[in-house]
Amino acid sequence: MSEDAARAQLVELARSLFERGYSVGTAGNISVRLPDGYLMTPTNSCLGRLEAGRISKLGPDWKHLSGDRPSKEVFLHRAVLQARPEAGAVVHLHSTHATAISCLAPEGGDAEIPPLTPYFVMRIGRRLPCVAYYRPGDAAMEPAVHEAARDAKALLLANHGPVVSGATLADAVHAAEELEEAARLALMLRGVPGVRALDAAQVDDLLRTFG
To answer: Disulfide-capable partner of 57 in 32, 51, 66, 192 (CB 3.0 to 4.6 Å)?
Structure first.
């Protein structure tokens, strides 16, 4: 995909996320890996009103090359993309239900979203770690995010929201959508007797087939 096509896709998918309530105001940011660097949503930008030509371009060393100034959370994307060389994009949202789970999950442990559907396992995997709370924009979280992302496609920032990677931008967006739906189901079913989650053998089968 050319850089121009990647910019256009970023605008389209970011607008779709915004219009469906996955982000509000200027919350959330997105990055895309390019052969010669990275694209990133600008700081204080609204995902629903991005302009392709103003999207930030960063070099392989993560230095700002062109476009508007990048998100103040550039280190968050760097941590994930360096930990996961197979990933082509990262989506960070403040989506309601996943953020709610991030307020309930133990810091430094795994979030309590059971494998209720095969699609959660297929898109997110076996683990959803929750990184300890850091102030938004605090670069001190980078090592903790990098460590969590090494063996997890997605993670939660405690009391903040989800960070999801994918092989492509479309994959990352779809996984972020699936995570939000899984979080919504987990909250709906919390405390309900007789909830049936996938068992370990079923999870293993999905990961062998789709992982």
So the answer is: 66
Consecutive 10-residue runs of the chain (211 residues): their mean pLDDT?
Answer: 97 98 96 98 97 98 97 97 98 98 93 94 96 95 98 97 98 98 96 95 96 78
pLDDT of residue 211: 78
* pLDDT of res. 112: 84
Alpha helices in the chain (DSSP H): 3-19, 74-83, 96-104, 118-124, 142-149, 169-189, 200-210
Phi, psi (degrees; rounded to nearest 5) at 210: -120, -10
Is the pTM value of this prediction over 0.90? yes
Active site residue 22: no
142 included as an active-site residue: no
Q: Count of alpha carbons within 13 Å of 45, Cβ hemisphere only?
A: 25
A 10 A CB-CB count for 139 gives: 14
**Active-site position among 73, 142, 178, 180:** 73
Residue in 3, 12, 107, 119 annotated catalytic:
119
Q: Other CB atoms closer than 10 Å to residue 201's CB: what's the count?
A: 8
